[in-house]
Amino acid sequence: MTAQPKPPLEAEDAFIRALASLGRGELAELRRSLSARSGASYRLERPIFEHLPARYHGGWGHDAAFLVAGLYALVERPTDRPDTADTAKASPSVRRNLGHDLGRLYRLHERPSTEKRFLALLDTDETQLPYHLRYAVTLLNAEDIRPDWARLLADIAAWHRPERRDEIRQRWAQAFYRPQTDAPPTESPAPLEENA
């Protein structure tokens, strides 16, 4: 019996396209909401989240989607064309993860602090994850490296489950330490499981 390929991150990609359509004020509101718990004060929550399946509408799935929306707003601008974004070019069967992007940054400058930040990110739980991700995304932005936002959303949404978190950590670490090639590592996208 052969394993069936996992479906692409269609819902996550649609969510990122919805974020790309936001205006300057809406993105600024999302950036400010990074400091609010679960974005409780964010007035645009409903239209943004309608693009995600029900599994993202409660609990950690919601928090993960809101966190990625805030991180996206932190570095992306309305003048960026959604059709030229990295996520739009990504093949559903080949996606970069955050470890790949941080590894690329590390190899650019070979700063030990980048590796230390990455290791701290791998060691965090969901309560400290927003802080570490914000720092990582800011570091990447300084070198004009954008995460695969849909892949990041799927990974963060699964972070609260220890077995999935361990799997994600392993994939990120392998991608971080893998010698740089022209193509990103092949990674089958894994959809978020239903909230337990």
From TrEMBL:
Cite the residue spans of the region called Disordered.
175-196
Coiled-coil segments on the chain, per record: none
Recorded hits in Gene3D superfamilies, A to Z, give: CRISPR-associated protein Cse2
Q: Which domain of life is it from?
A: Bacteria
InterPro entries referenced in this protein's UniProt entry, alphabetically: CRISPR-assoc_prot_Cse2, Cse2_sf
Q: Which Pfam families is this protein grouped with?
A: CRISPR_Cse2
Q: What is this protein called?
A: CRISPR system Cascade subunit CasB
> Per the UniProt entry, what species is this protein from, by scientific name?
Deinobacterium chartae
